Amino acid sequence: MKLLWSPIVDSIYWPKVGRRRSWIIPVQTVSGFTLIFLGSVIDKLMLPETLGANLYTITYVFFLLVLFCATQDIAVDGWALTIISKQALSYASTAQTIGLNTGYFLSFTVFLAFNSPDFANKYFRSTPSDEGVITLGQYMTYAGYMFLVITFVVAFFVPEDPPFYDKEKSEEEIELSEIERDVHSAGNVVQSHSSFSTDHETLGHSKFGALVEVYKKMWYVVQLKNVKLFIVILLTSKIAFQANEAATSLKLLEKGFSREDLAITVLIDFPFEIFFGYYAGRWSTGDEPLKPWMYGYLGRVLAAFMGQVLVWCFPKSGKINSVYFCFVILQNLFGSFMSTVQFVSLCAFHTRIADPAIGGTYMTTLNTLSNMGGQWPKIIVMFLIDKFTKARCVPEDDHSPLEISNPFEDKEFYNCYPSDNKKLCLSNGGKCKIFQDGYYFTNMACIIIGLVLYFTWTRRTAKHLQSLPIGAWRVNREKSSLSV
C-alpha cells in the first residue's frame, strides 16, 4: 500500500508551504490529536469485558494512525534528500537510525517497564499495586503532545529549502554534463535536466498529470538493469541471519533465560546503538558507500554463528551465571553493531542514488523492498524450525523421550511441540522434552546459503553497483529515452 501511496505524496502539494511540509504538518497534527483522543479512551476500550465489542473501533482508528505515520515517513524520506547538504547526505541514515532506536526504546523498553506492576512495586512503591507507573492511555497522550510540539517547530522554524539548496542546485547543473558522459560510456540511462527539478517545480502541467508521471517514472526506474540487480540484493541479502534474529532469543527463553535478563540486554544495547549509528554514518561517506554494508554482512553471519553456540551451550541446570550472561550481552551488542552498520550504509546508499524529483517514492520503494527482504525468509525459517523439531510428552520423572512404557504415547498431545499440545501435556502431568531441535539445522542452513550467495554473487554485484555514477540510477522523463 505504501508503494501505491508514495507517488501521491510526491506529486500533490501546496507550493507555498512546500512539497514535504504540505504533508508533514497536517499529518503530524492529525496524528497528535488522534493519539491524545486515544489516550483518553484506550484504557476503557482495552478492558477485557469490552474489548470484543470495541475491536472494530480500535482497528479503524489504528489503521488511520498507521496510514498517517506511513505518509509522514514517505514525506520525511523525500525531504531528507534536499534538507541535508550534499556533503552530509550520508548522515540522513544516521539520523534515521538514532530516531528509530530512540522511539523503539521509549515505546517498548521504557514504556513496558513502567507499565509493569511488578517493576513499579519493586523499584518505586512501598505499597504494592496492580497497576504500573504509566498506563497506556497516559503514554499515548504524552506521545500526542510531543507530536504537536514537534509539528509546531517544523511549521514555524524549519524552512522547506535550507539556505544551501540554491547553491547546490547550480553546482548539480554544472556537473550534469559530466554525469551524462559517464552514464553514456557505461551504456546506462542518462538523466535529463528535469530530474533535478526542485521542490518548487511541479512534475506536470496538472496535479493528475504529475501523479501519473511519478508512477510512470518509478516504473521506468525499477526496469533499469542496475535497479533490478539491487532489488535482488535487497530481497536475498538477509537470508543468512534470519534464523538467528527470528529465533535465537526465543530459544534462549525456551531453555530458561528470563525475560527480565533479556530486557536488560536490550537496555544495555540502546546507548551503543546511538554510538554505532553515528560512526557508521561517518564510515559511509566515502566513494564506496556499500563497503561498510559488506563488512556488516559478514559480521551478522558471525553473530548468527555465535547465537547458535550460545543456545547450544545453555546451562543444563537452567541457572545463568555471570559469565554466560556477559556472553549473551556481547553477542547481542555485536549483532546490533553489525546490523546498524548495514542499515546506515544501505540507507546512505539509498539517499545517494535516489532522484530528488521523486524522492519520497524512490526512497519508499527501496526501503520497502529492503524490509521485504527481512520478512519473507522469516516465514520459511519458522516453518523449517517447526518441521525439523521433534518433541515428545514424557512423564515428569522420565529422562528418555523414547521410553516404550511412556503412558502418553497414544495421546493426541504426544507430539507436544505445538503450543496447544504442550499445554495439554503439562496439564496431564507430563513435560515436553525436545530431542531434535530444528533451530540448529535451520540456522546453519541459513548461514551456509548466505555465505555461498555472498562470495559467489552478492559481494561482486555490490562492488559493481557502488562504482556506477549517480545518473545510472535515474531516467529521463520521456519514455523514448529509456533503454534497459
Structural overview:
The longest helix is centred in the N-terminal third of the chain and has 36 residues. The protein contains 16 helices and two strands. It has two domains: 361 residues, MFS general substrate transporter like domains (Growth Hormone, Chain: A, Up-down Bundle), CATH 1.20.1250; 47 residues, no CATH class. The chain has a two-stranded antiparallel sheet. It is mainly alpha-helical. α1 packs across α3, α1 crosses α8 and α9 packs antiparallel against α16. Helix content is 70%, strand content 3%. Its main location: membrane. One of its GO terms (cellular component) is membrane.
Provide the descriptors you would attach to this structure in a database record.
2 domains, AmpG_permease/AT-1, membrane, mainly alpha, 16 helices, transmembrane helix, Growth Hormone, Chain: A, two-stranded antiparallel ribbon, about 475 residues, acetyl-CoA transmembrane transporter activity
Helix/strand layout:
Blueprint: H1 2-11, H2 21-45, H3 48-83, H4 91-115, H5 117-123, H6 136-157, H7 165-186, H8 207-223, H9 225-236, H10 242-255, H11 259-283, H12 291-312, H13 322-353, H14 359-388, E1 390-395, H15 419-427, E2 430-436, H16 438-466
Antiparallel strand pairs: 1-2
GO cellular component, one term: membrane
Subcellular location: Membrane
Pfam families: Acatn (PF13000)
What is this entry, summarized?
GO terms for molecular function: acetyl-CoA transmembrane transporter activity. The chain has helices spanning 2-11, 21-45, 48-83, 91-115, 117-123, 136-157, 165-186, 207-223, 225-236, 242-255, 259-283, 291-312, 322-353, 359-388, 419-427, 438-466, and strands at residues 390-395, 430-436.
